[in-house]
Amino acid sequence: MNGSIVLGIDVAKAKLDCALRLPDGKFKNKVFENNPKGFKTLTEWVEKHGATAAHVCMEATGVYWEAVAEYLANEEMTVSVVKLIIGAMMRKLIHVAFGVLKSGKNFDPALHGC
Description:
- Strands 3-2-1-4-5 form a 5-stranded mixed beta sheet.
- The protein has a single domain, classed as 2-Layer Sandwich (Nucleotidyltransferase, domain 5), CATH 3.30.420.40.
- Helices cover 35% and strands 26% of the residues.
- The protein is globular and about 35 Å long.
- The chain has helices spanning 36-48, 66-74, 84-97, 100-103; strands at 6-11, 15-21, 27-33, 55-59, 78-82.
- The chain is built from 4 helices and 5 strands, in the order E-E-E-H-E-H-E-H-H.
């Protein structure tokens, strides 16, 4: 792994909204399909940015997180899955800290990373 790569994933039934935090602190965002083809494309995208592994953080959304979490773990990435209630509380705290709630901005997947 080249530096500290963190990947936040907002999991939905059909898609994965991803925010990749690079070692220089910059973010790259991309959406992938929530299926094996999308998982492979996601892994290639992470590798393209200089990492063969990353610390991945995602919310336990229904059962939709399970396949991608297993796939990424099998790719030797560290995967953290946060329970929905904890994830929602963390997201709210992050939004308050960055003034998102007061400004009325929409959810930013970059704020969803660990």
